[in-house]
Records
---
Amino acid sequence: MRPFGRITDIRSAGLDGLILYFGGDDLTQSNQAVQHCVQALQYLNPTWLKELLPAYDSLTIVFDPWLTDDHGVYRCLAELPMNSQTVRFEGHHHRLPVWYGASQCNDFEHLCSYTGLLQSQIVDLHTQARFRVFAVGFAPGFAYLGELPEQLACPRLATPRKRVPKGAVAIADRQTAVYPQASPGGWNLLGLCPVPMFDVGKSPASLLAVGDTVQFEAISEQQYQEWCHER
Amino acid sequence: MSDNSAKQLLLNIADKGLLSMIVDGGRSGLQQQGFCQSGPMDEPAFHWANWLCDNESANPAIEFIGQVIVDLPATIAFAVTGPGAEVWFNGQLQPLWQTLSSLKGGTLRIQPHRIGTRHYLAFSADWALKSAMGSVSTVIREGLGGLAGDGKPLASGTQLKVCPKQCPDRSVPVQIQPEYALTRPLEVILGYQADWFSGATKNLFFSESFQLSSQVDRMGYRLQGTPVRCGRTDLRSEGINQGAIQVPSDGQPIIMMKDRQTLGGYPKIGCVALYDIPRLAQATPGDRVTFTSIDTNNARATWLLARQRRHLYRKGK
């Protein structure tokens, strides 16, 4: 199966799956192409479609092998209409409040010494950037946001923590994220976000989707507590 | 109170064994939000357990490891499926892969022949369960599904409320049952980053045997053997399909199962074919597995024929 358009490579992902890789001038462009393909497929909603797994520059498609095969999927992709009716070219924008330096989520000492920046400079850089959701996965509602300004890029912890609290805002490499649930984690912690990242009572359950944009804003401990009590 | 509630039975899980949990067909269409697939590790055994009970094919059933004991207060049709177990009812040995509909109330004890294998206990009944994200399948890590919808597996002493139904007696003959022997290699469709592995490494992967480590769970089965080295590690996280064979830098493959995380960044040499996943799911630590390569078209044909056999048998042909 020959790649075409923005698709640069197509590989098998089992007898019921294909993975497509997308290209562009940068990661944002590749991810936009992934997002558009996802939306066009969702709009078409072919009977054989079982799962779509968009990620940074790839899209994994799981199909029902009773209804089609990888060539059938390929032919469908080749004819996929991409226009303003089938594709929402802009994602939703979200503003997420963060209590930076919350006591149980505070790696600033390590981050300041690693980056050579003051805590206030780190917060400024983190709140000024407009991040893109490149992928949602690993756990329900966990959104990989990027790209983090180069000055903030820092490696994961050598030993992951056994427990990172729900709502922890974290950075690692060129990425940032909000932990949707308490879980083990190896990212560096900046603070706490009071907005739930997923709600099983809602559809969609995940607040963020690939292609959405996010900007963080600093709030005080008191504002954080008020946010939490409002719910 | 409605008629249904009058007919409700309370089944008591006297002993949950090593791990007992409620599963159904699993969650669908939610992997892009980060929810795992979930559902039965041995899909054919689960499927037939429900068919033997005249249930919808994705009706809830209990997947369990180790010896379980269940008290049944009155007659209820049920069936047990899986690779092999002794089924005792009030001290009488009963068959697997058959509807057991005429037993009066008493104590059911199921002792798998091999520790670590998964068996399915289905009842001909409707369950009063609240689904979480479209399914009652238990996912401990996500806190979803199960009796209370919070992802907890079944505890000893749990009471299960069910509404029994009438059910014809059925059986699944040996030739229709899944085959569990590991003497035949598991069939693998090369894909994903297969090109990142040298020809010599691929030869090694398809000629050596690998032992199941003790790290086997519903997320993945970690193998041990001669390291399968991959030349590159610079992979961005991407979607992981069922049966995908991840190879971390230590060269010890991990095969991704029903509760796998949706995205991951380890190189993958390919995927175990769907129809061979139950065979792997029923292997236990210390067992040895081998792999053979199959192309996508052949693999799909094998899968389609197996599905067709299932449909024909269900139709009585």
---
Amino acid sequence: MLAELDKIHKGALAAAAQVIDQAGLEEWRSQYLGKNAVLTQSLKQLGGLSAEERPQAGQKINQVKQALEAAFEERKAALQADKLQQALDTERLDVTLPGRAMPLGRLHPITQTLRRINAIFAEMGFQVYRSRDVETDEYNFLLLNFPPNHPAREMQDSFYVEGGSADNPLLMRTHTSAGQIHAMREFSAESPENPPPVRIVLPGMCYRYEQVSARSEVQFTQVEGLAVGEDITFGDLKGTLTDFARRFFNADVRTRFRASHFPFTEPSAEMDVECFVCGGKGCSVCKHSGWLEILGSGMVHPNVLRNGGYDPERYSGFAFGMGPERLTMLRYRIEDIRYFWRNDLRFLEQF
Amino acid sequence: MKVPISWLKDFVDLEGVAIEDLAHTLTMAGLEVEEIRYLGLPIPSGQQLAKLSGLAWDREKIVVGEIREVGPHPDADRLVLCRLFDGEKEHSVLTGAPNLFEYKGQGELKPPLKVAYAKEGAELYDGHQAGLNKMILKRTKIRGVESYSMVCSEKELGISEEHEGILFLNAEAVAGTPLADVLGDAVFDIAITPNIARDANIYGVAREVSALLQRPLKPMPIEVQTDGPKIEGAARIEISEPELNPRFVLGLIREIQIQPSPEWVRRRLTLAGMRPINNIVDATNYAMLELGEPLHAFDYDVLVQRAGGQPPVISTRRAKSGEMITTLDGVQRKLDDFTVLVCDTAGSLSLGGVMGGLESEVTENTRTVLLEGAAWNFINIRKTLNAQRLSSEAGYRFSRGVHPAMAPRGVQRGLELMRQWAGGQVAADLVDEFPLPPQSSVVQISPQDARRWLGVELSTGQLSDILQRLGFEVKTQGETLTVTSPDHRLDIGEGVIGKADLMEEVARIYGYDNIPATRLGDDLPPQRANRSLEIEERIRDLLVRQGLQEVATYRLTSPEQEARRLPAGTPPDDKPYTRLSNPISQERTVLRKSLLASVLEIVERNANIRERLAFFEIGPVFRASESGPLPDELPRLVLALRGPRQPAHWQSGDGDTQDFYDIKGAVSTLLNSLGLRELQFEPAAHPAFHPGKCARVLADDQPLGVFGELHPQVQTEYDLGGDPVQAAALNLDTIYDLVPERFDSQSVPAYPPVLEDLALVVDESLPAGQVEALIRQTGGKLLTGLALFDVFRGEQIGVGKKSLAYQLTYQNAERTLTDEDVAKLRQRIIRRLEQELGAQLRA
């Protein structure tokens, strides 16, 4: 019987090796380990054996049974591994097909630029101050040291708005400088004898009476800045704006200040930065000058300080103004200013 | 203003100063050189300080030539052959220049004619083409005669547009000398800002150059040789408005000959941008360009005639409103009562300080010239220019302010130039009425001012030196400088303003580059909260996270464009538009009242560019205000969605189209995220929206705005494509008021929740909101979650019914809920739903 068992063991193992799939393996199990299997039947024959033979044979049967069960598990694992390998071998994607885009929202490029500007100045202690789009002549011009019929008014063609009076017409603000007076008056009113220092940036939409072209728009954003205190100099103006340029453009950018004229500042300066496209060598972006005109600035005119409630004998300050569209256009080499308010997705999606 | 360098050199030595360095120095000091036009001198390559134009004359190929004889062309009457010496040898040069014909056949010319001679290969402008086109001179045959060189016109050299004849040079020019050494020049085009109006003349620029380069300035050229009898008795002046006309000066020159000005004068005027006319007119223009005082020349004999043979009385007065005059440009002008007229006893002669009249103009028959130089109130001149829509060289200068001291100087300079160019005798003395001399401004400054304004340490000596270089008179006493402004400028104010004015001058001349850059050391201001901006920026971030693209649109529009947002026939609202009084186009005549209209225009623009559109904009709308003339500027938020929920992809997914519930979801997600947790929604009627697909959202019973599907008629009014647009219009001002400063957080539950589904059949007409409200109310604190997961309609549940399936989450913060707890609550909820809303539990 022992020999018989060995034979069964060998035959079963050989058969297991031939099994190629799960179904075949189940068949094998019922054949060798099932109710009608020779091995199961041989247990029933134990009773017919002698007392000496019986434990020996019983032990042997158990051994073979365990071995066959182990062989089953082993074969099952091998078949699963084969199947997985087969699947891995056949499941192939074209990884070059495009991915599925997530619906991504974006900020308008001008909002992005405004945020950058505001953030840089915020770190230097400048807070955002906002004021209205429709202004009076008084706030937009007169209090900013543009007397009536002053030649400087010619530099700013305005859209006038119905409803004002002859001596104080309404207009779409031509610059956010109008907010300078609102801010200074608001702050100085808190403590007229001892007005607090001012450090603000004034972002906002401005308007000029101009034919729309690739270079000019009827509506444009502007960021003005104003710092007023008891110890503020032209040197501080240069330092602050140079720091800004280094943050906005790059850490090594060179700046230069050219004398200029704005009615509400004196002395006035234009700040140029070294062209970041050509590194100052001269290219089409900087019109071969090596420099890009970035912003206008100057020491706040005594009349403006006084109109804001700040005594110009005691207080001084500087102001500056820049155009986020121009900065954005330079940064991304955008060729047409009209793109900004057209809002074509093929433009907006680039930012 | 155009400034020829050669003219500048009359007043300041520029030996050793490169043209480009000079341009840079001027630009940095506020006299921005916008363009450098080269006339023959080499044009630098590489980095450019300004726009560069013009032509460099090759030193070998363009030289002084000497025409020794002009002979006929063998078979062309309109051409001549010149025998020309170029310093080395003689050439035969072919030309058609008409101004050589008079020399034809005269044999050897004594003296020879000095001309600009260009050899083969020279670069010139093409004289036969309109505009400036460069060309290379090539060897060719003209009418059988070989030609390899030419004598040049001014146009070919880039000096002027003149191409009628060739350019003649001074007799002293030596043949063979490079032409660039004889005529080479450069012209700066300088932008004159209002604060440097005093520099709108050659001498003014020379003064700046002298101060900047620290080179001496030659005296102002105002000497005049007076050979004639005194002017006394020849004319009288009466000024009735000294405020408007503080000074009036007349000079007289007799026995002049009207003829063209000398060649060099004509060239100089041309370079400076003025057309030469005749020696008298040219003298007035030349003096004006040089010193900045506009002059006016009258034909004296005409004036005497008009005065009935008497010496003329020149008076200045305000025009009567509606009075007419015909100015030199041939325009008949109706005047305002502020316009100042120059008159004689017979009537008006000219618009004071702006433009002469036709009648008393200098003509070719003029023999005696009465020359006017005056001072005018610059604001009044500006008003006049604006009212008359007129511009003139005189008006340009007088409207920016010319010091009265310049009036006699200008007249003297003009008379002397007339004497030199037109002969005649200048009458001794001037008639000078000066009823209102200006106060010279006197300002006291000290080094402390430079420290305070500029942040730079300058000694009294340095300050004094800088200001004196600009012509200021400075007296120093201790630390105090008493500075008197010179009599060519009107721009220095009094007191602290005068100090600022002087600090500008100090900074400009000291050099902005030399002022050290420092960091702000002043006190920081008190920090202030900016709530509306903070919330606005949060909204932007939230919407971007929801996948919306921000847009920014025009705030100026037209009522017609905005009307498109409402179906045709919608009655207009009663709020009037805020209108522009000077619109630039029909498309932008008013301030917008609707942000929705602005955003729909952007949807329209992109309708065919992308399938999926999701936009938002934050911006003001403008409404007439009840409290004053300024309109209210109300912050608004508009959202617009259209097309598929997901961006297009090659593997088409569910392709669901954004509908009402997408816009509702976008609005709720936004408002919830801002801390507005308790929102109410109710059906709303708004003409822009589909009447059945429009809702109002409220928080704390305050309406925040409306949203819904666009009205089909509006959808077609704009070209928005097939899928209906879903939009929302929200009032940010109300939202700013309601957004809580803070909120209490909820602890994370420690005990397990019990989840349960509840499917109900209700009448189709019952709003789901009511079902939900009742469940929530009944569930109380234990019901922590309620989510609708299915809405079903079908035969199984009967016509006119719908099934709503909810998942309920029960949770107790203190302990684990038992089945009995949940069963009790569930029974209560079902009972109320059945009794109060007629709902049936779905089997």
